Amino acid sequence: MWELTKQDVEDLATGAAILGTGGGGDPYLGKLMALSVLEKGMKINVIPPEEVPDDALIIPSAAMGTPTVLIEKISKGDEVLHAFNRLKKIFGREVFATMPLEAGGVNSINPLTVGAKCGIPIVDADGMGRAFPELQMTTFHVNGIPSTPMTLADEKGNVVIIDAVDNVWAEKLARVVTVRFGGTAWISLYPMTGKDVKRAGVPKTLSLARDIGRSIRLARAEKSDPIEAILKITHGYRLFEGKIVDVQRRIVSGFARGEASIEGTGKYGDSRLVLQFQNENLVAIRDGEVICSVPDLISVLDIDTGFPITTEYLRYGYRVAVIGMPSNEKWRTEKALKVVGPRYFGYEIDYVPIEKRARRKD
Prior knowledge:
The chain is α+β, with helices and mostly antiparallel strands. Helix content is 35%, strand content 25%.
């Protein structure tokens, strides 16, 4: 088990936004809440999944909804704790730990606050290894773990309990509630055992996010290229560099959908990249050719600092680098691709691992 310092929280928030592939909510809000509990003398302890007892009860905590709304509809800070405690009450037994549902943005940071306030550790794992827009898009779901009972809370004190017939129905019902809540809900779901975490989770994502953030900080201090530092840790690829020339964004059924067009600069000067997103970046298309797609990770970075730019902050004129990173192997099975592959999102393309696409380019 390791205890997070304030610097760890800062680094983790930066790295989580990169793993979040443009989604997962603005990590800044979650970071402020986590730093606040440290300032009050509480401890944030992270435990490796292999150290969690097999029969322990683990309850993940997260936020659900449109990242754009989260910027304007600021959290009071205790909503996610209300959701967590209500689900804990349903089970009527001790909860050993909480954990992130996804590795991305505010959803990597929220569990830190829950763990600190409840005096329990946070498991160094999650159910995606990145961020995805729907609740059934987890390695937990692929491995047969039910997402319900789940709880949803809002800033007014409302708490809704859902017990659905399957995880797809849980997503449908929770999405309706989230929209009625005003576009954002704070949730606890996928209650599971330590044994479930070990077999179905994506391990070491919190420590990976921390290491990514640290690599950016150290690279900037050493005046080296922070983007290269990120690629080294994530085994990723530099897909494109350029200037954002157009962003189309709309809210549809509780999702932020749209695309960003990037005009190439430097060695990419004769090219254009189009990014398609639904909360998260899903497909990168360069000059009409797909160069990276879900479930592999696509992140947009400030070209000078290496800091991530989430989809809600994409703006005309930003000079960016677009990177691609390989997804966890759990997402590359035929069963998993039916849940998160490009065809699920309506793209008539087959998934090709980024390593193979990069080789073709070479």
